[in-house]
Specification:
Blueprint (H helix, E strand, L loop, with lengths): L2 E3 L3 H4 L8 E4 L3 H6 L1 H13 L3 E4 L8 H6 L2 H15 L4 E4 L2 H14 L4 H12 L1 E3 H8 L11 E5 L3 H7 L3 H8 L4 E3 L15 H4 L1 H17 L4 E4 L2 H13 L6 E4 H6 L5
Parallel strand pairs: 2-3, 2-4, 4-5, 6-7, 6-8, 8-9
Antiparallel strand pairs: 1-3
Helix pairs in contact: 5-7, 6-7, 6-9, 8-10, 12-13
Length: 262
């Protein structure tokens, strides 16, 4: 995905005059598997009046290496990402797990390197998960998309537990007139993905995912919304293996931007 969105001060409004370059880290999973999510995030940030910078050379945040204990590989990717985005006023990421990696774990990688530690901490301080940015920084009251129907929301583990992403997605959905949110049982419970966890512990992961899908079905709703593509793919895949091909699994950005059609 490659794009740079720009608006004039008149288009952005008086509050945006001195502002504000938002770096959009698309994430490697979104770029490879569901680029529409990245374009939806871009649309939302532009709608909020920001200049959006999407470096064409961006790749991975290093989370897989970090989680696997390969700190050197994680550091190499962290340095790359920091250099690409540190000149932006904000870094916004449509993924709680990747945002959590940058905000929480990048400084851990450089405790023995004062120069890079300072740069990592500076970037971490201006890193936001997409939904919290739209609510707490952009103050979005009018998501540009339209969606009609009942939805349920899955709280992804990293976003919820590392970044406190809980109320922002629900606030944004509540600002869409056609959306009715129905909470599922166990909305804060894991979906069983966990990156390499799903590979190392396949049977346990499948059991957790089945419980999550049962909870989705118990809500009586045929659309589940969430903020992490890894969880999306895991839940979507498990629903299909359970014989359910009708329940839609959508990223929050797709719903808010009105980009839910293939």
């Amino acid at each position: 995905m490659q794009a740079v969105g720009r608006k004039t001060p008149d288009q952005m409004g008086e509050n945006a005059v001195a502002q504000r370059r938002v770096g959009l880290f698309v994430t490697c999973l979104v770029d490879l598997m569901r680029p529409r999510i990245g374009f939806a995030a871009l649309k939302l940030l532009q709608h909020a009046g920001f200049e959006v910078i999407v470096p064409a050379e961006q790749t991975c945040c290093g989370q897989p290496g970090f989680n696997a204990g390969d700190a050197e590989a994680a550091r190499a990717l962290a340095r790359k990402l920091i250099a690409e985005f540190e000149r932006c006023d904000y870094l916004v990421i449509p993924s709680g797990s990747c945002a959590g990696t940058v905000k929480t774990h990048f400084p851990e990688l450089f405790v023995a390197d004062p120069d890079w530690l300072a740069r990592a901490e500076a970037l971490a301080a201006k890193t936001w998960e997409l939904s919290r940015f739209l609510v707490e920084v952009a103050g979005m009251t009018d998501p540009p998309g339209r969606f009609e129907g009942r939805v349920t929301y899955h709280d992804s583990c990293s976003g919820l537990r590392e970044l406190g992403v809980k109320h922002a997605p629900r606030t944004l959905l509540a600002r869409m007139p056609g959306v009715r949110l129905v909470e599922m049982p166990g909305c804060e419970e894991c979906c069983g993905f966990g990156g390499s966890f799903a590979v190392k512990y396949g049977e346990l992961s499948a059991a957790i995912a089945t419980r999550k899908c049962d909870n989705i079905h118990a809500s009586g709703v045929r659309t589940v919304v969430l903020g992490d593509l890894g969880c999306m793919l895991n839940i979507e895949g498990r629903l299909v293996r359970m014989g359910d091909r009708s329940t839609k699994v959508l990223h929050l950005a797709e719903v808010l931007a009105g980009m839910t059609q293939s």
